[in-house]
Amino acid sequence: MNTSCKAEVDASTDRTSRPIGPHLLSIIDYDRADLEHILDLADAFEEVSRRRTPVPALSGKTIAWLFSEDSTRTRLSFEIAAKRLSAVTVNFTVKSSSMNKGESLLDTVETLEAMGVDGIVVRHACPGVPLQISQWVENASVVNGGDGCHEHPTQALNDLHTARSRLGSVNGAHVAFVGDIRHSRVAGSGVHAFSAMGANVTLVAPVPLLPNSLAGWPVAVTHDFDSVLDDIDICYMVRTQSERQAEACVPSLGELRAEYGLTTARADRLPENALIMHPGPMNRGVELDGEVADRPNAVVTTQVASGVPVRMAVLFLLLGSESGFDISKALDVVAA
Amino acid sequence: MSVGGFRTGTVVLRGGTVIDSSGSRSTDVLFSVDDGRILAVGPGLEGDHTLDASGCVVAPGLVDLHAHLRQPGRDEAETIETGSQSAALGGFTAVVAMPNTSPTIDSPAMVREVQRLSEGAYCAVYPAAAITVGRRGETLTPMAALVRLGVRFFTDDGDGVQNARVMRKALEYASSLDHLIAGSQPGKVPGLDDEKGFASSNSGTRTERSGRASGLGGVVLAQHCEVDELSVGGYMHEGEWSSRLGLPGQPAEAEELMVMRDVALVRLTGARMHFLHLSTAGSVEIVRAAKRSGLPVTAEATPHHFTLTDASCANYDTVFKVHPPLRTEADVAAIKAGLADGTIDAIATDHAPHTTADKNMPFDMAPPGMLGLETALALALTELDLPIEKILALMSWQPAAIAGINDSQGGPIVPGASANLCVIDTDIQWKVSGASMASRSSNTPFEGRVLRGRARHTIAAGKVVTMDGEIQR
To answer: Hey, CA dihedral for B468, B419, B130, B331, is it positive or negative?
Structure first.
């Protein structure tokens, strides 16, 4: 791990001061080199994260969480990432319902900026809100923490990080995204992220759970899960975001499980080394059987664990360029 | 009206080319400020005042079938005063004001209120009334009483009348109200009655109970075509872009199904129907077929639907959020073809002002709509490959006939006619700026775009309301 991060540090010095910034809004904005750069840095931060003692990479920086929807793991892993980089964090929950207007989102953002916030991680029920906010701010960096059914770019980075650490590379791998793709921001980012890294992506879902148009999506599509089981390197079970939403599209959750669930029988047919991924939280018995989630090749908790170093890397790239923090020196201290 | 550049006397429009429904000729036009009528048309006329029209087209004032003036209820976004200033600057001498105000224009009291608010306006304002009380799609408004007050145009615009039984009843009732219109003599409109062939023919309809002598004039029901069951929760056109952006979409079929249904109801009732803001290739084709079979239907399209596509929403800029939504390149081409071949009878703005605060919202919460009055003529001249005579037909005399106001609007420029005129500089290049518009709002989707052609002077009932592109108070 140390050798790979040495190589990474050399690469990072060649890049501009904010190589992925000023905002992180959509995974589509990045090519393979950009993604590898972030993942390499995440590898390095894994070491920093492991020793638990915060490093001063973002000391003096303030990061606000602007959340209009519940989030447990995303918010927690951003928060832990920020604190391990010595940033100050604050929370701001906004209402997304038009029934509870209150202060407008624009006013909220201006308020945060007036208080001197350097970064804003946004989760919102409506697609595009992080991009809109990035156009309203003057100085702060905006990170998309998940926008409606659109994208969740840092989750895609976690997933790449996990898959890469387990498989070495995802180049040429066959990745199947299975289930409620239509309402999944995880798939919205993940499809493009895996494809950019050289994977072949297949969407496995009935038509009502697919996007209306797949023009420009680098994917193959099948409605027959069983037909692709033998040939999958990564079986990505997409969370059924809202049972109500999914049920409006298919006859029943029972039928969804029967046709598109990763049951024990289906899991047995996967190639031996195939990874089983899920962004969590899992609906055991819907997307996958409880027993399947506990198999050794199910990497759900690794995905969660990747969240911290990946988000450390993202926050550092967006906010830490002028900090003078040198990760190789920090790691030398660890090594010593 | 108490507004206008010259308070009294006579004015000659000098040196222009007069174009109206009867043709084109180079001549001066003399009108009276005091009685609002054209006095003379001919060469070398003299008057108390002179307005230069050299190199310009002198035309009947433009007529907008579809403007949201927001009063009463939403004065922050627009008032009848500022909206009518926008209209005048755009060359319009008449606008039909949509009834989705707050409260809804669905009663005699509300019609009188809008008529009162319109007294000092910069153009004629014709309040449309709702088809159903509160636009809830259930109970018909007191249409006879409203027609007696001068209403000719009924619509639940903003929403379609979802229930087919209610719409059938509305069509049947509306077709029984023409006798209430004093001296109702539905006029022949060149290029509209003749071409469509529904003037004296009910051949395409199942019943002839409407007893209509003509397809035009009288009362008209106008439908906002959208089947809610398919469109609900959709914020843009459903297709490649909505899928990329993760935004729920409205399929084209949500509009087309209602156009289809209402064509069937027109066939059933024999009543007249106007289709608001057609936006899809399929809708154009359905209306084309309906007209071919002789049904008394008319249709309009907006400038934004013949210029912009759903790709405009790529940055989640809510200024491009509108209902019906911006569609695809193929739909834009079909709208243009429909305007060219007479399937679509009118260009209407759907001028829909919204405050910046209201538009600066997440895409799902931002209200739909965009400004249109000050850019419509220039967009038609810039974007449509049509002769000016055709554009004027689409923007003046044809919409005037559809709205039943062709007694004073859109008529030939002849002595004795109402002096509702606009003088158009067809060559001038100008840059769109929302901030410099007369509208109280600035939500134009054409910000920064350079357009060709603009109204230079506008004369509303003899009052010079704009002169060289400036409002005359």
So the answer is: negative
